[in-house]
Amino acid sequence: MTETIDQSPETARQADPFPVKGMDAVVFAVGNAKQAAHYYATAFGMKLVAYSGPENGSRETASYVLVSGSARFVLTSVIKPTTDRGRFLAEHVAEHGDGVIDLAIEVPDARAAYAYALEHGATGLEEPHEVKDDHGTVVLAAIATYGKTRHTLVERSGYDGPYLPGFVAANPIVEPPAKRTFQAIDHCVGNVELGKMDEWVGFYNKVMGFTNMKEFVGDDIATEYSALMSKVVADGTRKVKFPLNEPAIAKKKSQIDEYLEFYGGPGVQHIALATNDIVSTVRAMRAAGVQFLDTPDSYYDTLGEWVGETRVPIETLRELKILADRDEDGYLLQIFTKPVQDRPTVFFEMIERHGSMGFGKGNFKALFEAIEREQERRGNL
After folding, report:
1. Which pLDDT score is estimated for 228?
2. 261 is in an annotated binding site
3. Is 58 left (phi over 0), alpha (psi -120 to 50) or beta?
4. What does the alpha-carbon distance between residue 352 and residue 186 come to, in Å, rounded to a whole number?
5. Residue 164: which residues within 8 A CB-CB, separation 6 or more?
6. Which H or E run includes 116?
7. pLDDT exceeding 90 applies to what percent of the chain?
8. What is the distance between the alpha carbons of residues 250 and 122, in angstroms, rounded to a whole number?
9. Residue pair 170/64 in contact by the 8 Å Cβ criterion
10. Rounded distance, CA 276 to CA 297, Å?
11. Which of the chain's termini has less CB crowding within 10 Å, N or C?
12. Bigger pLDDT: 8 vs 71
């Protein structure tokens, strides 16, 4: 039986046992939220839209909310921990460095989503509750996922404020670029321990009704020295996609092993950001100081033979070190940053899709060899 994928997003949501509207926010715990916000504003072209801190009643934490299209990042640091939440955030940064603590998902009914998740085996972290201000009401709940990551379930249809109650509108840190650097969150990738990938795939299947979208194992995702395995789960509308990686036995330490070692356990490895003009995106981000993984010229010598014609000429892809891949549905263009903090943990992907709903399978070898070169430079291969 073939999978039906041509239904409308609204129909798919209604049919899902755990309907979602999309990603609400990627929430980071960081050592210095003010400086991190400046980095994402200047280097990623994001716009600061909301703030919560001592000036408006948050004595324990400072949080900055930045957006680019529908993509939303929330950067939070602890000023002085006085509650369990503050102590958790402070300990998280001390143990893991800057990293993602919450992949928040917008849902049409947070109470129903939370109840369904718990009925199917989820660990509840926050029961559904309302938060209000002059802009309306938001219903929030939270469940646990791999490591210390959580999914906050956000029902915000009755709210028109800049982010959540407790936040105030904020002026941009710098003038945002005239053209957005990226438009949306494409997918968020989690790294888990050896032998745990299928367990977490099963979690998303059972607890959230997600289906298996892609699977990469064996030679799909290996080099001469290192290997990993990956499966992708997604909601029925394909708006929320979570690839899950685990290390595989190989000659040397894989990128997943390195991540788990330096992050101190499972967590979010990278966030893919969707752009409709990857050339402009990469040029702007490079000019702002973002470092991308390098790709040897030899990759481009035969690229046109198997990828075919793309919107961007091969020579431009070569110049900017952008990767390309094609499958039965179309093609995609992609590039990966180096880690954006001192620890070799969280990084980003920029992706431009033209029909393809894949993840660049044809580029895995080139990508992982590029990561291995960086691992070797760090002395971690």
Report:
1. 74
2. no
3. beta
4. 10
5. 131, 138, 140, 156
6. helix 110-119
7. 76
8. 33
9. yes
10. 25
11. N
12. 71
* pTM listed for this prediction: 0.91
Sign of the torsion formed by the C-alpha atoms of 310, 312, 316 and 317: negative
CATH topology of domain 22-169: 2,3-Dihydroxybiphenyl 1,2-Dioxygenase; domain 1 (3.10.180)
Side-chain-facing half-sphere of 119: CA atoms under 13 Å: 10
CA distance 96 to 345: 9
Computed over its alpha carbons, how large is the radius of gyration of the chain?
20
Torsion on CA atoms 18, 23, 24, 30, rounded to nearest 10: 120
Degrees to nearest 5, angle at CA 84 with 83 and 87: 85
What's 195-215 look like in SS3? CCHHHHHHHHHHHCCCEEEEE
Bridge-based pairing of strands 22-29 and 99-106 is antiparallel
CA 358 to chain centre: 16
Tokens linked to 299: 């990759």
Residues whose CB is less than 8 angstroms from the CB of residue 322 and which lie 6 or more positions away in sequence, other chains included: 278, 279, 282, 312, 316, 333, 334, 335
Listed by start position, the domains of the chain span: 22-169, 184-378
Q: Which amino acid is at 128?
A: P
Strand pairing category for 150-155 and 99-106: parallel
Residue 259, φ and ψ in degrees, nearest 5: -60, -50
- For residue 25, the cross-strand partners are 104
Contact 34, 52 (CB under 8 A): no
Structure tokens belonging to residue 222? 């290996």
187 marked among binding-site residues: yes
Residue in this structure with the two tokens 């490591």, named with its chain if needed: 147
The amino acid at residue 257 is: D
For 58, the token pair is: 């948050």
Is 120 among the annotated ligand-binding positions?
Answer: no
Give pLDDT tens digits for 157-173. Answer: 999 999 999 999 999 99
| Cβ neighbours of 333 (radius 10 Å) | 26
CATH of region 184-378? 3.10.180.10
